[in-house]
Amino acid sequence: MDLGLSNALRSTLVGWAKILADEVGEDAITSNIVLPDRVATKRITFLDEKKAAREGRSVEEGRAESLAAIPAGRYGDPEEYADVAAVLASTRASNITGSMIRGDGGYISNV
């Protein structure tokens, strides 16, 4: 509904990151993708509100349903997401490239 463009572009970014990792790896440049799911931002609040209105429920009911589907039981914090990106950009992660790192509280269950 409100995520069509975002979802369409995600697979493109993943493919591009993999190709880029191959092209620049020998120059000690890494290329990774951090995949968030529900990070507590104004956008998530907006999506929760739109879903609730569409389904004729309260925002709290919809949010509770979303939280119940996340093993961590909460939306991620923007700073946590930023911390993952910072580590990946550091020399401590210099051998991680061409990877997709999920910051989703365990929401996505497939490998």
Can you put this structure into words, describing what you see?
The chain is mainly α. The chain has one domain (4-103): Rossmann fold (3-Layer(aba) Sandwich), CATH 3.40.50.720. It has helices at 4-24, 42-55, 59-68, 78-89, and strands at 33-36, 100-103. It has a two-stranded parallel ribbon. The protein is elongated and about 55 Å long. The relative contact order is 0.21. The mean pLDDT is 89.
List keywords for this structure.
single chain, mainly alpha, Rossmann fold, 2 strands, 51% helix
Give the overall average pLDDT: 89
CATH uppermost class: Alpha Beta
Poorly predicted segments: none
Arrangement of strands in the largest sheet: 1-2
- Termini separation (Å)? 26 Å
| Residue fraction in strands | 5-15%
Radius of gyration: 16 Å
The description of the largest β-sheet is: 2 strands, parallel
Annotate the secondary structure layout.
Layout: H1 4-24, E1 33-36, H2 42-55, H3 59-68, H4 78-89, E2 100-103
Parallel strand pairs: 1-2
Short description:
The chain is mainly α. The chain is built from 4 helices and 2 strands.
